[in-house]
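User: Show me a protein chain along with its predicted structure.
Assistant: Here is one chain, sequence first, then structure tokens.
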Amino acid sequence: MATNTYPEPYRSAALDALVDPSGCYSRECTSYCAWKIKEWTGNWPKHTGDFNAKNWVKRLAENGYKTIVKTPVGNGKCIGVCGAGKNGSGAYGHVLSADNSLTITEYNFPQPLYTAKFHERTVRAEDWTWVQIVAPKKPTAKKSVAQIAQEVLEGKWGNGNDRKNRLKAAGYNYDEVQAKVNQLVGARNAGPKLGDKVKTSATKDINGIKLNLAIINDGQSVWRRSYGSSAVLYKGNVVRCVVPSSTLRKA
């Protein structure tokens, strides 16, 4: 069931008793659709001449809305327009609002009587000229699970239920991301192993001894890894021995 968002004071006024900022009369189909444009875009359409519903394709174009589509789908927001006498619209035509489907909302539906009330129904696309007011949203390319897991480790997604809720809201599978996070944490905590390929880094002073620490395969410095401070002895570019730096003393 659609929600009627048509605002006061027009909603409670008698038919044609008030004029809205677009120049349309209260509780007419045109005033309701002018309001929907305001709701979607933040701006009322300007009254640029005869604002009868039958002329709305031209009037909307004068307001900058020139895109005609076959049907209002794909999260696009459209105004449906039919001319005088078409589809039972009466002498002045009729306009209606479609958020993203052919289930539309309107005011003062012509058949069987002009009741000046809010109404919802389903229409056939081919019976109307659809003027696009807001273009469909383009899907945002998602990052890989590995990329999001790395961002989690960098603190960009919070912790606990906050992380879970934010990941779900962004369209990611929390369990998959958390499994990858756990895998990365496990790899980091494993420490260097004999046979790991390394390259030298800047010289560090450990207990008064200057050592060239090693950088392990994934580019993380031994000195900064979460398993603790270790001295890595290597020959060529292969780890030969790993010992706690606390055991090192000057000779």
